[in-house]
Amino acid sequence: MGRIGRICFLGTGSFGVPLLxxxxxxxxxxxxxxxxxxxxxxxxxxxxxxxxxxxxxxxHRVLTPTRLRDPxxxxxxxxxxxxxxxxxxxxxxxxxxLLALASRPPLNVHPSLLPRHRGAAPVAGTIxxxxxxxxxxxxxxxxxLDAGPIVERWPVALSGRETTPELESVLADLAAEVVPPRxxxxxxxxxxxxxxxxxxxxxxxxxxxxxxxxxxxxPVVEIDRQVxxxxxxxxxxxTIDGRRLHVRRATxxxxxxxxxxxxxxxxxxxxxxxxxxxxxxxxxxxxxxPTMPATAWRRGLPREHVIVxxxxxxxxxx
Length: 318
Description:
Blueprint lengths: L5 E6 L5 H10 L2 E5 L4 E3 L4 E3 L2 H8 L3 E3 L7 H10 L3 E5 L7 H4 L7 E4 L7 E2 L2 H7 L4 E8 L9 E8 L6 H24 L15 E2 L15 H10 L6 E5 L2 E11 L17 E3 L4 E9 L5 E2 H6 L19
Parallel strand pairs: 1-2, 1-6, 2-5, 6-7, 8-11
Antiparallel strand pairs: 3-4, 7-9, 9-10, 12-13, 13-15, 14-15, 15-16
Helix pairs in contact: 1-6, 5-7
């Protein structure tokens, strides 16, 4: 495995962890920049990001600035003197002063086939769009988000049943396999690239709680994608008796004519009537309770005929 010099690795989520492990083996010196530790869990203990946790475990130097533009962050990266910057799902725009810092073009590893699904949630965006193919893109970073020239793309055929965590894991392992040989060429001064086709660009905004609300008027194929794409955050959810019900796993099935939208259909497996088709609920999580099989949830309902999602409850989306 070739050496790639002094590398500043900017990453946060689990997508970057397998590649960071490979880069650590190749770099002559490594500085890892990640988001700050944040409170998590029931007791709100501070927890490092997956990238920062791995870096600390292996004794690499780690910076966790609130903002990359903070003078201390800029000084820390500048003083390290990187030969190149490699960004992998970091979560902030990189200021121009850092983009121009190293002698090599700064690289970004993005978990979609750019120019499709630029932005904050490209894996979820791939599933929501019903794309038959996902993938990983290596690109040169520019000041505009995810719009830089493409060095290489690696496609992955999708089954149509992936959830966001499942697809992200597949793409993370793929990136760790295919990107390192490209980094060796990058270190040798060989980084050919092609501009993105702006006409084909799509964008995925950061999700909010309200994005998870299920509109049962829509076709079941779209709702099924929503359930798979919005895991773990914000989750796909509906309401029953004014309380939120998360749908954690479900499958699209044929519907029944002449029933109200949102009605639970007869049968052992709870199925909800959609605009077209029906959604068979498999795993659900009632508000304030743990996840459970949907069949067990249905047995606990106090009545036989149930309508879910009666109107958009904006107050519950906050």
